[in-house]
Amino acid sequence: MAVRNCLECRQRHRDKGNKSSIPNNKTQEILQNAVTSSKTAIETVPSNLSPIKDPDRLLQDVDINRLRAVVFRDVDDSKQVQFLALAVVYFISVLMVSKYRDILEPQRETARISSQSGRSLRQEINSPTRKETTLAFNSSRDHLVPSEDLHMDSCLPHTDSGIGDEQIASILNGSDLDQSAGGPDAMSELISVLSSEVKKSQESLSESPSVDVLKPPSSIISISQPNKGINVKQILKSLVAAPVEGIETGLEPVSYPDPAAKAQAMLPLQFHSFDRSVVVPVKKASPGSLTVNTVGSSSSTSAGLTAGSTPNIFATASITSKSMINTTGATDAAPSTSSSSSFVSGATSKNLPAVQTVAPMPEDTVENMSITTKLERALEKVAPLLREIFVDFAPFLSRTLLGSHGQELLIEGLVCMKSSTSVVELVMLLCSQEWQNSIQKNAGLAFIELINEGRLLCHAMKDHIVRVANEAEFILNRQRAEDVHKHAEFESNCAQYAADRREEEKMCDHLISAAKHRDHVTANQLKQKIVNILTNKHGAWGTLAQRQLHDFWRLDYWEDDLRRRRRFVRNPFGSTHLDVSCKSLQEYGSDEDEVVKSMKAFRSQTTSSQNPETELMLEGEDDAASLLQEKEMDNLGGPVVLCSPAQLVAPALVARGTLSITTTEIYFEVDEDDPAFKRVESKVLAYTEGLHGKWMFSEIRAVFPRRYLLQNTAMEVFMANRTSVMFNFPDQATVKKVVYSLPRVGVGTSYGLPQARRISLATPRQLFKSSNMTQRWQRREISNFEYLMFLNTIAGRTYNDLNQYPVFPWVLTNYDSEELDLTLPGNFRDLSKPVGALNPKRAAFYAERYEAWENDQTPPCHYSSHYSTAATSLHWLVRIEPFTTFFLSANNNKFDHPDRTFSAIARSWRNCQRDTSDVKELTPEFYYLPEMFVNSNGYHLGMRDDRTMVCDVDLPAWAKKPEDFVRMNRMALESEFVSCQLHQWIDLIFGYKQRGPEAVRALNVFHYLTYEGAINLDSITEPSLREATEAQIQSFGQTPSQLLIEPHPPRSSAMHLCFLPQSPLMFKDQMQQDVIMVLKFPSNSPVTHVAANTLPHLTIPAVVTVTCSRLFAVNRWHNTVGLRGAPGYSLEQAHHLPIEMDSLVANNTGSNKRQITDLVDQSIQITTHCFVVTADNRYILVCGFWDKSFRVYSSETGKLSQIVFGHWDVVTCLARSESYIGGDCYIISGSRDATLLLWYWSGRHHIIGDNPSNSDYPAPRAVLTGHDQEVVCVSVCAELGLVISGAKEGPCLVHTITGDLLRALEGPDHYQCPRLISVSSEGHCIIYYERGRFCNFSINGKLLAQMEVNDSTRAILLSSDGHNLVTGGDNGVVEVWQACDFKQLYIYPGCDAGVRAMDLSHDQRTLITGMASGSIVAFNIDFNRWHYEHQNKY
Predict the structure, then answer these.
(1) 1304, 1293 contact by CB (below 8 A)
(2) d(CA 391, CA 466)
(3) What is the DSSP pairing of strand 1374-1378 with strand 1383-1387?
(4) What is the C-alpha separation between 843 and 916, in angstroms, rounded?
(5) Which residue in 1294, 1329, 1325 sits closest to 1315, CA to CA?
(6) Which residues contact residue 907 at a Cβ distance below 8 angstroms, ignoring those fewer than 6 apart?
(7) What are the contacts of 571-577 at 24+ separation with CB within 8 A?
(8) pLDDT tens, 812-831?
(9) Quick check: 1313 and 1276 in contact, CB under 8 A?
(10) Which range, 276-280, 384-388, 473-477, has the best average confidence (pLDDT)?
(11) pLDDT at residue 447 greater than cutoff 60
(12) What would the DSSP string read from start to end of 43-63?
């Protein structure tokens, strides 16, 4: 770059001074091409951005700064830096001498150029040596040097500067260094002229003000020049001691139009060249990161070169024998000088663009200046750089630059610089023979070293470039591979996204179609409901002629608290199945043969051992893992949280479909395209609910784990409408996901377990151990029936799978005698043995079969059949729908052969004792469902061999009707004999005798495919084999899950509990006293309503009374009844009365807080039906107001809290259902408009309705129609889901709480005007008609008993178990009756006033009656003393 700038300066100078010189055309063309092609990036910019600021200067400021940066680049004084310094010294000295020569002889040079340019050009082109050298040089830089540089090498004229053009070319670095051939050529001329100019320069130094800044400081001037004794160190010390500003200020500031260049100029002087274009080569010590800026040139080898734009240069020299400086200047100087002159003068062509002069010129023109002034001006900026190099590299240069006699030449240069500020002396010094010889000699060595260094750097750079290229190729390949991978991943994501969208669209379409199906099903149900209401004989379109029509009924899926299904509803699909025939005996194969065939058809699968279960910590809250899963589920968004294939498990159908769970609902949509589903009969589908099901989360009450085909992959969900639905999933993991997508309800609130999702995933054994039901059963807090149903429920038995139907034991053995004495042990079965071992002869047969087992493919067993299968369940229930349809579907649409049909209880018991293939146990219906023994639909079940028709089931002689059999059977189940040994039967079915050695000893081993864990269906990959295995499991039956592996604890006897409050003997010491107390209120108004809410957990246990004048009292209850030794007993309590009168009423001070002052309709007769007290005693509901409303009052303040409208006439009666946790219950209101409205009481918000914000206008849950007169009495039972109401002149209607009219309860002819209704959860409905007439109906409408009394009854009450009825009337006599047959049990002493209302305390031990005289009477009552066991034993 420095040389290029020098050439440009020379070109400008010659353009000015030689305008009249016209070179020949060929030379002009060559120079035009040379200059044009030699333009660098700097020349392409506008002229005002050119680095040439002062053409008369030897080197521009930019070049000086760059040279300074190159030399002083490294802090360390390395060998390479020393060689660079020597090369720069040589370079500057050559340029100085050349510049001096140009100043001395400008005219000679111009003339020489014009006369010899043509010859030199031809000589250059025709020179084979030059051509070889140029080609070699080009070949060595063809991959780094731009094409313009190559063009310059071939077109420049060959010049000889006396030093050798190869050396000159190698000195100058950059893209245009080869153009340095135009440099100085005749060193001998310069020396002669320079010596004559020394004197002039010293004179002009004092005259020229422009170079005053270069005067050395006084410290340098003070050193006398003749003093030869001073050595280098002293001179250096004096030079270094001088202020640096004296040197730096000698450089004129350069004005840069470029801000970057300006910023560079602002830097300290020695770093002025550090701009963007400077590439600083690093030291040898780190060759891995070198930036090589050398240019090597040789005829045989080449060194690495950088791009032509790199400004920091260092020169290299080719290895030639040619002398670097021709000091003789004799023969070689003349032709080269003329050649060089001709090249430079060619730049004066008019065709070349004029270079704008940027640097300001002095006032005197250049021509008028003296030679010394010109020299001073040209070299004033270069001299300080040379001075710095001499000073900083003095140790090296003093050792290197030696004269012919070994003297140090550097001392002369330092003395020269110290003694004089004139550059003329410095130029003369540099032109001396000693300096020239020494510099030429040592610079050549330096160039050789730099070339070697360049070669090393070149090889290092080559290796580095190769390595970088390989790395780049590797990176690119990796990038390409990543691109390919990303592209593939993108395509995969796109495909997955498209698949997901298709799946989502499919799911949306599925949900839409499912919603359509559900709407269609709902619409059909609603239409059927409306048709039933309208066409009922009590409906708007009903006629008396419909009385003769046959009504079909089916068992509803509604369950009560003990999981009993007792309610029958109208069956629109009902039929007498008159077209169905019975099977012939030839259609039955031998059971034994079938079992043997099935055993031979399958090889025994490896039975999975019963691994000990990992026990869950079921106490407390969910563990961390559960919480994490719940959190994950909470984070799920979108319409569908979970979607999974599933199977709806129904009693006679397993339908494949899709289960979808949203954030609030469960959906199931059956796959109607499934071939198995298409084969299902339409009659079965009509009885299957949930095929297009939708269930709200708010309706879910419990989630139980279930098995299906012995695999723990199913789940049963219990709903608020007391139905359940069962699903089977592909695996247990899906079950877990589904459970964690559902509400946290556990297994409900009945079994003493926390409502947590992990409870829904617990094993049956864990549920059994964690529940409190066994302890409650032992303490006799729950019945045997309830405990057995609990065990069946947690062991996986369900109504939804006939293969896992709940199993109950035979408990009686006497089905023949006329009377059944439940006090005789001989009438009871031995529950310690299975059914198959009750007969000793048959037990021996089964034991021998087990011992003589010969089939090696299956494990030995005692029995070829099971005690509970789908076939046995349908066998018992064949007379009631929907089991009739299920039975026909499973038996090719045929009934059993009459001899094999369930036709007599005694016969079935005998078969279970004698037949080697019959070991059936019973179902729960034997203990609560009398309708199962009646052929109410008139099926033709055939004729037996003894010529008797099969119709209703033949009952034992001691049972006059099915209700008697069920009642006696249930009494036997709850008897002391059964209670004392029931735990042994539990060991056989659910406990440690179910399997293993104990099962063998107890003759209780069944086929291995009936046991849980016997086979893993997922391990069977062959579809046909798996299907056959599933069919075999279904045919063999399934044993319940094993709940305990140790003996079940026995039940505590009644004698052990005689001192506990709920013992049958708890009242033995108090039987003498019937009346506990009489409480007389100040008001003489009759007490028309009594509500005894006396539970201890209430805030105020009290007996609330309301008089006919609507004055109410909240009388605090004291639970003082107890025996000595009972918990909580004290002598003080024994003397207290149980009821304490309301203080506000007793003192007559706050009667305004106890008086309901709102006016009622004058036509209303105030009765017990006009009031309802909530279960917490805090609110009283009153009806009969003229505005057709009923109202809610606070019992604490008497203030009105809510008015409820809904009827079109005066509300005449109210009733409340039993309350559940939280105090929620149903309120039913009857009106003169002949309708009833069912309302929901919120125990949480204490209002009618669910929404507190809309308490002014609550909506009823259902509207019940069917009456055509004023409704006068009503009763509601939430457990049964029934509302029974009576009109003023009849009839009594039975509705469901959803509004369906089921039936009318029709008594005898004279039983027309109902007045009182009481319903128990056990299914008894007691109705009192006018004139002392009573009727007892079953909830399914059957009249069970009737009676007439001589009293006008005003209050009736059923005990909690429904077995006893308490009545009271105008005669003032309280009587106790047996509800089933109205047998009178007890008569209390008569009172002096009539009974208007009554209620029982929570423990069923105190009867409180409201009297017409304005008082209440508390009676001791003990229903246990009328129990048969109590009467016979105690």
Answers:
(1) yes
(2) 41
(3) antiparallel
(4) 9
(5) 1329
(6) 954
(7) 571/881, 572/528, 572/532, 573/683, 573/686, 573/687, 573/881, 573/885, 574/881, 574/937, 575/937, 576/550, 576/937, 576/938, 576/939, 576/940, 577/884, 577/888, 577/895, 577/937, 577/939, 577/940
(8) 999 999 999 999 999 999 99
(9) no
(10) 473-477
(11) yes
(12) TTS-GGG-S-S-TTSSS-HHH
Q: pLDDT confidence of 419, banded at 50, 70, 90?
A: low
Kindly state the tokens that stand for 119. Answer: 């010859």
Collapsing DSSP to helix, strand or coil, 1229 comes out as strand
* Angle at which helices 784-794 and 976-989 cross, to 10°: 10
Q: Extract the tokens encoding 325.
A: 């400086």
Question: For the CA atoms of the chain, what is the radius of gyration?
Answer: 60
CA–CA gap between residue 1013 and residue 1016 (Å, rounded) = 7
Q: Note whether 1048 and 986 are within 8 A (CB).
A: yes
Lowest-confidence segment of 58-72, 670-684, 833-847 by average pLDDT: 58-72
Which of 1170, 1198, 1172, 1167 minimizes the C-alpha distance to 1184? 1170
Q: What is the DSSP letter of 1108?
A: T
Nearest Cα neighbor of 742 from 627, 621, 641, 620 is 641
pLDDT tens for 279-314 read 334 433 333 333 333 333 333 333 333 333 333 333
Q: What is d(CA 510, CA 1426) in angstroms, rounded to the nearest whole number?
A: 61
**Across the chain, what does the average pLDDT equal?**
76
Range in 219-233, 703-717, 1363-1377 with the lowest mean pLDDT: 219-233
- DSSP code, position 570: E
Enter the tokens of residue 508. 């949306």
Alpha carbon distance 1328, 1158 (integer Å):
31
**Omega of the bond leading into 1291 within 30 degrees of 0 (cis):** yes
Residue 547 tokens read as: 């009385």
Residues 6+ apart with CB under 8 A from 1034: 709, 803, 870
SS3 1279: coil
Contact 302, 296 (CB under 8 A): yes
Token pair listed for 857: 């493919």
Question: Which tens digit of pLDDT belongs to each residue from 92-101?
Answer: 878 877 777 7
CA–CA dist 730, 736 (Å, integer) = 11
Q: Residue 1225: pLDDT band by 50, 70, 90 thresholds?
A: very high
The whole-number pLDDT of residue 777 equals 96
Q: Is 175's pLDDT higher than 50?
A: no
Q: Which residues of 407-432 are buried (b: 16+ CB within 10 A; e: fewer)?
A: ebbbbbbbbbbbbbbbbbbbbbbbbb
Amino acid at 826: G
The rounded distance, in Å, linking the Cα atoms of 93 and 413 is 12
| Better-scored residue on pLDDT, 505 or 1230 | 1230
Q: Is the pLDDT of residue 348 over 70?
A: no
DSSP state of 1090: E
Confidence at residue 454, expressed as pLDDT on a 0 to 100 scale: 78
Q: Where are the alpha helices (DSSP H) in 992-1083?
A: 997-1001, 1023-1036
Alpha-carbon distance 913 to 900, whole Å? 15
Phi/psi for 1351 (5° steps) reads -125, 150
Instruction: Measure CA of the first residue to CA of the last residue in the chain; give whole Å.
Output: 131
User: Can you tell me the distance from the alpha carbon of 1010 to that of 1042, in angstroms, rounded to the nearest whole number?
Assistant: 12
Which residues in 1195-1313 belong to E strands, given as ranges? 1200-1205, 1211-1216, 1225-1231, 1236-1242, 1247-1248, 1262-1264, 1271-1277, 1282-1287, 1292-1296, 1301-1305
Question: Hey, which of 373-387, 706-720, 1112-1126 has the most confident mean pLDDT?
Answer: 706-720
Query: Which residue type is seen at 1061?
Result: P
d(CA 1365, CA 1384) in angstroms, rounded, equals: 9
Mean pLDDT check: name the lowest of 113-117, 429-433, 1201-1205.
113-117
What would the two tokens of residue 915 be? 């037949």
